[in-house]
Amino acid sequence: MVEPEKKKAELKISGMHCATCAINIEESLAQIKDVSKVQVNFGTDTAHVEFDPTKVSLTELEKAVKTVGYDVVNREVTLKIGGMVCATCVQTIEAALRALSGIISANVNLGTEKAYVTYNPSVSTIPEMKKAIEEAGYQYLGIAGEVSEEAEKNAREKDLHDKFLRFTVGFAVSIPLMLAMWVPLPLAMHTLAYVMLVISAPVFYFVAYPIFRAASMALRNRSLNMDVMYAMGTGVAFAASVMGTFGIILTHEFIFYDTAIMLAAFLMLGRYLEARAKGRTSEAIRKLAGLRAKTATIIRDGREEEIPVDDVVIGDIVVVKPGSKVPVDGEVVAGESYVDESMITGEPVPPLKAKGSRVVGGTINTNSVLSVKATKVGRETVLAQIIQLVEDAQGSKPPVQRIADIAVTYFIPAVLVIAATAFFVWFFVLHSTLLFALTALISVLVVACPCALGLATPTAVTVGVGRGAELGILIKNGEALEIAEKVTTVVFDKTGTLTKGKPEVTDIIPVGVSERTLLGFAAGVEINSQHPLAQAVVRKAKSTGISIEQADHFDTYGGKGVAATVLGETVLVGNRTLMQEKGVIINDEVERQLAAFEQDGKTAILIAAGTQMAGVIAIADTLKETTRESVEQLKSMGIHVVMITGDNKRTAHAIARQIGIERVIAEVLPQDKAEEVKTLQKKGEIVAFVGDGINDAPALAQADVGIAIGSGTDVAIESGDIVLIKDDLLDSVAAIQLSKKVMGRIKGNIFWAFAYNTALIPVGAGVLYPFFGFTFKPELAALAMALSSVTVVTLSLLLKKYIPEAKKGR
Fold this sequence. Notes:
alpha+beta, seven-stranded mixed sheet, 27 helices, 30 strands, about 20% strand, elongated
């Protein structure tokens, strides 16, 4: 008996921290039947496994590693593929790739014409994937990102030109042939038939060649796709015409060369329109990619040198001149200039960048020269990460796609059965003419279209995710889109999310002195303190243009306040206790003010000069400008809003009242926020958590949808299912509105695709003929089929113009 060929895999393990870990992994892998050899190296974090690929998959090996608490690090690659025309093409390519033993997962997106592959490079290589794709009958166009934008554009234009030429030639010949059948000509029918054969044979071959080639490749790979059906439909029409011409079984009434060519021409027209529309679905990615600088000017050996941006390394000093793009992420080491970051953050006002400021690649330097030290290059830059995130999201499948996937699996066999049944019933049961039965057979084969089903979800996801990126909303995957649409409760972290996260002076109440004098006294004392409240007072004084005087004899009273001498006057800044201890009288008016501030959740500090009350300054963590509007919009959508905070209940409820939030979860430690989210989920709520992505990581992970609110170019891309680039709460509302719109479009597309096939396949089979005398001409069936796919793609493309309600007028 021949021994099965063994495969050797090298698994990259993460999470090992001692030799015992290696032993645990070895034992777990060794327990799998048909694994013949295991060796785990703790020093290199690798596991070398020898196994029988016919009985054991890499997924099983991974599962064994994960079972004992470790993870396997695989590689990911995105491949560009040409020649896909329908949903069955997707399944064929996925099956071809998954048949390789080193492939962990393979997802093909018909809309973007890409395959997203997770694989183990020690078992399967890119050349093997290329071979598998080409043997399945499709074109391998290279690795996405490595194929230049110009090359992609040229390939797309070449493909469009080819399709345009084929359908143009098809119509140019088939229309005159059709007229020849109706207009009396001075030729006998048998002579005309031979003339038509001579004219149509090379044209039919030219127009229908891509269909027959793809069909033969599919059959060779033992799969049924739409090309097989279309080849059968057009092939039957042309073969019947040839048989009619030579009088083999069929007569001259079966001559429809014009129909055969027109069928193929309509099919190519449909693919041309579909390819044009599909090319527009990825415009958002192309716009983002267009932001990248192609060259960089760096300082080498004291001289400026222009090099390709890919050659810049970390630590290089890059010179960015006015009007130029910043080529890489870095830190300004010299110069001052305003940098336009609107293409990434959406903020219209360029911020000033000076020494120590961070800049990101793709932004534009406006007015002066900057010297920037490169800190992130290549795929590590913010822009590259955003592009990668958007591409990955466009390649993901939301769960709703499974409906279409299941339908497509049974679609073609079902259509073949219906076509055969229609022919059998009309010819053998109802004794119609052979011509009528053949027409019904061809119409069913040609009108059926799973392409619309296959395009319903990926085109909408691709356009929707791209539109999100344009709006500053980065959606990580299709699943996040689907869940965000169903959200019932949004939980907001308070500090830094609903509020600015920085205390600010909100009220100044002077007693017997002017506001400026009161603020000047307080700032003169507080400038010596590092307390956040003290810094808020100093910031307010500076922003008002008050000169802060030098203070002497600074003294601190623990938990009560501080004192110092300003302009020869002893100034006290603190709470009631300090004032009472120092003999300062607090009158009834001041007491009323203090009570009002406390009711509003503000911190009040008292200021006295000598033993006389000088006034009160109220400080609070102020709300962001869009907080109230965001909460109002969510409530108007029927979504419950909850605020979670570590603040005491009195302060928390005071802030919640200002915002309009009824439900408050207060006095929660950062590590306990995830538990509170879990509690809401147990009550049946679908929870979105909105936080800053840094302190709220556990809660973001626990929520059904984690929405990480960013801060412009400092966005933490790895946090949350949805990442907001701007520090604007309305974008969290816009993200949910966008999700609802995209999911609505997907469901509409799927409904249209099902409705189209459910309605027109029976019409093609001749169901209406006994009642209304109506039959579907094969050429009209081909036109309807072409329009169905184009309609779905066009409906998805309408999302490009969508503006969420939360973004309107902004």
